[in-house]
Amino acid sequence: MVTGMIIRSKERLPIVTSDTEVEYPILPLMTGVLFPGMTLTVQVGRPENIELVEKCSLEKQEFVASYAHSEVDTPGPAPIHQVGVFAVIVDIKEGPQGSKIVTLEGHKRASINNIVSSEPYLSGTVYAIETPQYLLKNIKPKMDSVIAVAGEITHLDPIYSPELSNVLKMSIEDPSALADKVASSFHFSLASKQELLEAVSLDIRYERLIQFLNNELNRVATVLNINENVRKRIEEEQHRAFLRQQLFEIKRQLGEEFTEEKEAARFRNMIKSSPQLPAEVIARAKIEIDRLSDLSPASAEYGTTKSYLDWILNLPWGKYVPETYDLASVERIIATDYYGPNTLKEQILQRISVRKLMSGVDEGPTLCLVGAPGTGKAALAKAIARALGKEFVRMSVGGVSDVQELKGSARTWLGAAPGKVMRTLRTVGTADPVVLLEDIDYFNIDNNSSVNMALLDVIDTRRNDRFLDRYLGIPFNLNRVFFICSVRAYEEIPEQFVPRLEIIELPGYIEREKIVIAKRYMIPKLLKKHGLVRSEFKVNEKTLTKIITNYTQEAGLLGFSQQIEKICRKMALEKADHKKKAWHISERNLDSYLGTPLFIPEKAEKQPEIGTAAGLAWTGAGGELMFIEGIKMRGEGQIITTGSLGEVMRESIQAAHSYVRSKADMLGIDSNDFRDFDIHIHFPSGAIPKDGPSAGVTVSLVIASVMSERPIRNDVAMTGEVTLRGRVLPVAGIKEKVSAAYRAGITHIVLPRENEKDLKELPREIVRKTNFSFVERVDELFEICLLSVTPSAHSLQKIFAREMARARRRKSRRNHVRPAAARSRKRK
């Protein structure tokens, strides 16, 4: 425990008390522990301590020397231990930089009670510690054990004088002096020496002393064992070197060549035949070749050195494809190999034109293709590589969680190898390929920032011109590598990557686009893959449409491709068994190839209904038709929402309700109805979470229909966000949403006015066959979709009575018992 500036002893101290407290100067010792009857030479540098030793030396005054210890460096003096030693100065000399070299002699143990003053030097009240009482017969075995262990240490370790053992035996009559002399003479830690100083009881002191001596003996034995092993290893290496030199001389006289010399000559020839090698690589290779020629082929170091030379001399240093491509041919190849938006292709061409003007270097952000699986990310990257005439390689970084996987491990490690980037470039053979980095969303799951920064060192054009692989130890220029990242969604990109990536979103394909891609790319490729011929396979667009709508639910083409593969495999089986030679896949026989349909597409309602409207939604699988339902019931004017709705959608419903309530007079709704009736809004497919503001116009229409009791047209679908003042704001995913409505047979679509420009992305066939209405306010939507005539109460009673009559007739027919003859004829 530390009290003030004193570290109190944990031992019980037998103090010699007196009537008057005596004040002594206190000298803190930072580099040693002084024991009674022993001398210690220290260097004193602090001004206050120099003044203390000068005064005590001049006046022959006794003072207390105590070990001062601090766990951390502090600007002030370190705390001192309570137990010290009364000491006098034997000798004092001048030291470097104004310090003093002082030799101290200890007399007996002392206990520091309190610190009285720190000016001009440290001083305090001190009591002497009584000399411990002992029985020689009890302590004699421990003394013999100490002398024996000390003798072994001095015999084994040349650091200790051989006479030390004899010197210790001279103090055999005084157990306390013997223990102190051993503690002072051997190389214990200062903390251990302080423990021995504080151990006033001889039993405790000798127990600790034996423990520390045994630890020192173990250390000495370990060091001797290591030294002996090193000596033997050196002798063996010298012997082997001598034998190798003899063997070399024998083979030289016989005219034979050495394997190591042949390998060294091979590497030297590789350097001469590679003029593009950087100076750094040549210098390092020459050093390693010289080492290789001096090593034995049987040594482990020979193998690691040879492997390292293979790596650095086989990497594509300075091997670049000339940037001689024509932009018109690049545009044509990309348009041929990839089916997608023209704006996306134009963005790619802009980046390629910069590379052409800068001789293959583009210091802009790295391209990142964002899109659902099957949207053509790999196809686009491959098209870019073919257009540029460069090698294309796909490199997955999914599951990478260690820097070593990207930047390699140091050569000193067992099984060291370069990182994944260098291994890829060696396989490709050029220093400027098109590299598609896939599975970025599965990269570094633990989110270790050092791993993220390691990948940034690879793809960031600002700093990858001197990329350093830990195994190679030589910078490699990566700024001419065309890196392209791919990820499924923007939200899954690691945060550190976002500022250094140029995001290119690949939209999902609508039904018509999937059919075109299937005919142009997918079906010919799959037929060739399964050993089939195009003339043997016939399928029409309606069949492909049924596969897309009934067997897949995705934005891309992955599932669509898998379904066609199933058909191809069944065809291949029948062809291999010589059962058939041609196949016509139609809507009728499609089930025999793919089984029962997995999905049932939404269809438009057969007639207008109150409280049911067709909304358009965008999902990760593309556009969907979503029927929003509403009813009113007696209550307190509350809004009830169901269907796994998110917070944004709930707020959109509340805004739509408030607007419709504000337009009650225009819609012919009694304002009291909003207070007397509850409204329940339900979104079907309750297991699927839904969110977003684009259902605002549909919800407004449903609420207006329910409260005004006017049916909604069943041939209209809509999408758009609604503000509190009734304005209709634009939304995203128009192409997918319109395609979903067209697929469901709805030919009239209401869109926000600002989304009119998005019709350019739609196929001409859909635009030609669909009637579009563009609105700026919800009032316009009400005029388009709400029917002005509702069934009267009398008409409803007539319909109800007619349906009840039909039900009674059906029931009477079921209960009528026919004659036995009629029943027998029926059985026949």
TrEMBL record:
Under the heading SMART domains, the entry gives: AAA, LON
Annotated active site residues, numbered on this chain, are: S694, K737
What's one GO BP annotation on this UniProt entry?
Answer: proteolysis
Spell out the subcellular localization from the entry.
Cytoplasm
Give one GO molecular function term: ATP hydrolysis activity
Question: What PROSITE patterns does the annotation carry?
Answer: LON_N, LON_PROTEOLYTIC, LON_SER
PANTHER family found in the cross-reference section: ATP DEPENDENT LON PROTEASE FAMILY MEMBER (PTHR10046)
| Name recorded for this polypeptide | Lon protease
Q: Which organism is it from?
A: candidate division GN15 bacterium
Gene (UniProt) = lon
